[in-house]
Structures are given as structure tokens and as C-alpha cells.
Amino acid sequence: MNEPTPGALPGPLALGLRRAAVELKGFFREKDTVLFTFSLPIVIMVILASVFTQVIPDTGGITVSQLFVGGMIAGGIASTSFITLGAGIASDREDGTLRRLRGAPLPPVSYFLGKVVLVLVASLAELAIVLAVGVVAFDLTLPTEPGRWWTLAWVFVLGVTACSLAGIALSSLARSARSASALSTLALIVLMFASGVYFVPVSALPEPLITLGSLFPLKWMAQGTRSVFLPDTLTQLEVAGAWEHGRIALVLGAWCIGGLILCLTTFRWRGRREA
Amino acid sequence: MTTTVTHLETSVAIDVSGLRKQYGDVRAVDGLDLQIPYGGIVALLGPNGAGKTTTVEILEGHRPRTAGQVRVLGEDPQRAGRRWRAQIGIVSQEATDARDLTVREVVAHFAAYYPNPRPVAQTLELVGLAEHGKRRVRLLSGGQRRRLDVAIGIVGRPRLLFLDEPTTGFDPQARRQFWDLIRTLAADGTTILLTTHYLQEAEALADRVVVIAAGRVVADGPPATLGGAGRDLATVAWLEGGVRRETRTATPVPVVAELAARFGGDVPGLTITRPTLEDIYLRLIGEGHE
């Protein structure tokens, strides 16, 4: 026993996948959290889209509900990625997960890889549920052109990345898991309004709210998903009168880079109380 | 990597000299020296705030130090990599993680981190959780939860195991079972550094007790000889004319024989006591505080 342990250490990728497996098990077994994370955007979408059903003039028969659903797709994936990481990492810090992992021969990158897979699976599931509810209940039509699916793909990837990084940064700022959970939910609800997800059309929002919303990823993600699921005649209801794909990519990309820097500078393995 | 480890290999598991850790104006650890050879159980005792936890966290690589030399398994914990981590096991206090996984899932998961892990079934058997493998962690009792923490700590076959107050909150029977587990691990060749509040635990388990007070080592030795010569003095007490009399002596038997001769047989209220580890300990940490 007094000889150095022989054998090779498992690779970071293999360990990342093992982390992903336990993250997914832990996440889906926590029934209340799963229910809350997945249902919050959907419940609100169902309520709003059921109340406002009138046809929007000059759009070829598009209803307000469809407009809601178009933006809510972004709201759903923002919610799963931002809240799952914001609250999840804060609770990992509080319950001793991070401390234990730091004492084990696990490369930090494997931990984050596990979280990435968790967020991707949760966000894809959320996307599928919102799309299913939209198609079944609110006349949402799935696009047929590959170009639109491509747009959905990059908006999804950039959006999930930006929101995940923002969530990680928030988890470091919060004092406890409880406050991280409350803070991330509050921030998300405010942004849902300011980004024209809970309120349509976005161009009808007061100027200061539009400015606030435009600073964060959600407004651009919602604009992106609307561009995928609504006809181009709806651009008249956007703030700039266009889908602005270039600008969406630019803002989300900037958030990814800024978020990464924020995470690298603020991430803490320990809780504030034990510093 | 392998060559570096071999090169730095030393005869002691833990080698600390002049360790200091300062938080602002507070010196939590203030010139601590400690050498621990491979094998055996060493207990680290000390009151709250004595620098015990800080020291252990520095040894585990969880905390940077302000000054001093530290070598654990031949490496500086502050710079050591994954290969070093794979050779130490840490059982910390108050973990409540992995609540939604089963016992077996958790141990199997951590086993995958190590190059040469102990088989999961054997690990569960060793800590006495074999029957609870399918149980969700959130449903475990406090004692079972600590056993799981130990299982995670030893599944990688560590050469050095840190145990931080492992039996806090145990009932006496659970504590004795736990001690047997620790002895089994030590018999297997694992070097164990145990932090504890229970003097009885240190006395029962450790080959050597190191007392820390005010950030320094104030005593170091086998539990039976701790505290030096004072430990050997016994107090002989008896009643004479209704008044309690006592005398401190290194040789109580002749004293008692003399008393017996004087009283012509039985000596009223006769007691012979030696200071317990607790008495010695309290005296030691009292000195450290001055």
C-alpha cells in the first residue's frame, strides 16, 4: 500500500460523461424542481396565449397566441439553462458537492462538462415540450425550410450558452442556494416582461423597458425564435422592423464571451460563509 | 509525472515545518511543525479555533498557506495534481450532497475517478452499508451518511486518509463499530489523520496524539504518555479523622502499604487516581492559551 498507485487516471472527457450521468439522475429524480423548471414558462404561455387570441391585422391570419408561443420558446430554454445552473451550482456549493469534488482527482472541466450536458438535455426537453404544446393548442406551425431550423439551432446553442454562463456567474454572487434560486427566478421573470416574452408585441413596450431588455440575451433569443416560427410579415412588430439575425448572433456571442470572463473571475469553489 | 512522484517520495507521509496561516491580523496557525510517518493512526486534538481545521485543510490542498514548508506524500498540496489527489482520501464534516442518488450509485461514481479503485461491493461491505446499496442517500440516518462519506473517501484506496470529526452525533454503539472500521483500514496500511473532539476516541484509536492550541503543537506522543512526567503521578486519597487527606506520588503501592500498616488493615475512603487524558488535555490547552 505504500507504493504510488499504479494505473492511468481516467480522462477528463470520460469523467465529464460520468458527471453528466449523475447530474441527470439527480436532476430528474428531484421531482418538484423538474416540475417547476419545466412548467413555469409553459403555464404562463398557456395562460397568456389562451387569453389573447385575436388575429393580428396585415399578417395573413397570425394570432396573438402564436406570437406569444414564438417568443416563449426562447423563454423556456432561457429558464431551464439559467435557473438550472444558477440554483444548481449554488446548491452544489452549499451541500458539499464542490468541496468533495475538489478533494477528488476530478478535473474541474469534467464538472462543467457534466453541467453542460445536463443543461442541453433539460433545454432540449423544454424546447420539445413548448413546441408540442404550441403545435397542439395554439396553431404553431413547424417550419419546413432547413434555413429556419438552422436559425433555431444557432439561437438555441448561443442562447443556452449565454444563459448558462450568466447562471454560473449569478450562483457565485448569491449568498446561499436559496437566495440563488430566488434571485434567478426573479431576474428571469423581469426579463420575460422586458424582452417581450410575457408582453407582445415587443415594440409596444415603453422605451426604457426595451432598452433594459436589449441589454440581456433573452430579448434577442425571443426575436430569434419568432423569426423561426412566424412568417416574415411579422417583422413589422419587432423593434427594428426586421429579424436582425446578424445583431442577434452578435449580442448572444458577446454574452457568451462576457459571461465566460465573468465566470472565470467570480467562480468560487467554496461558499461565502466558509471563506 | 511518475518520475516526479518517485523523485519526491520521502519516508514521511506528512512533513510540515514552520507552517503559518494568517487571516488579516489573526494567526490561525502560528509556526506549526509536524512529521507523520507512513502507517498508523494519528489523532489531532485541540479546542475550536486552535487552528486544527485550518491545518488539515492546508494539508488536504483546500487552502493556501501564508508561510512554511508543507509536504504531503512528498508533494506540496498547493501545487499537487490529480495523481496526488488520487492517493489521498478526505472525509469532511457535514456533507449533504448526492441526496437523490442511491448509495451504490454514489460509491460507483466516485470509484470511477481513481486509477485503481476498491471494488464497490467490497467498499460497501467494509463500511457496513452492504444492505443499503439501493437506498437513496437522502433516506440514510446520520451514522449511515457518515459511513457513506467514509466509503467515498476510501474507494480510491488512498495511502493517506483525512477524517474530520467522523463520529460526531454517533450513539456509543455506532461509534465503536466505526472505530473497528478505522482500525481495519489502518491495519491495511492506510495512514490516517483523525481530527476529533472526543478524547476517548483519540485514546481508543490513535497510536499518537498531537494536541494543537493557539496554532501550535503543544503536545505530541502516544496517548498513554501524553503530558510527560505529570502523567505518572498518582493521587492517593484517604479519610483520617473524618478529613480527606491526599498525597501525589510516583509510587502509590508503598504509600498504600504504609497506610495499611498505620490503620492496621483497611484504609477508610481509599482511592488511587491517575490523571485521565482529559485532565492532561485540559491542562495542555490551558497552557497554550496563555
Task: Summarize the helices and strands and which ones pair or pack.
The complex is a heterodimer of chains A (275) and B (290).
Chain A: H1 12-29, H2 31-51, H3 64-94, H4 97-102, H5 108-138, H6 146-173, H7 177-194, H8 207-214, H9 217-229, H10 245-266
Chain B: H1 2-8, E1 12-23, E2 26-37, E3 41-45, H2 52-59, E4 67-72, H3 82-85, E5 88-91, H4 103-111, H5 120-127, H6 142-154, E6 160-164, H7 172-187, E7 191-195, H8 199-205, E8 208-213, E9 216-221, E10 234-240, E11 243-249, H9 252-263, E12 271-273, H10 277-289
Helix pairs in contact in B: 4-5, 5-6
Strand portion of chain A? under 5%
How many domains make up the 3D coordinates of chain A? 1
Q: Which stretches of chain B are poorly predicted, pLDDT < 50 over at least 5 residues?
A: 1-8
Proportion of helical residues of chain A: over 70%
Whole-number count of domains of chain B? 2
Please list the strands of the largest sheet of chain B in the order they lie side by side.
Answer: 5-6-7-3-8-9
Q: Write down the overall mean pLDDT of chain A.
A: 87
What fraction of the residues of chain B are assigned to beta strands by DSSP? Answer: 25-35%
Based on CA atoms alone, the radius of gyration of chain A comes out at 20 Å
Question: Which terms would index this structure?
Answer:
heterodimer, A: 275 residues, mainly alpha, 10 helices, disordered N terminus, B: 290 residues, alpha/beta, Rossmann fold, 2 domains, 3-stranded antiparallel sheet, 12 strands, 27% strand, globular
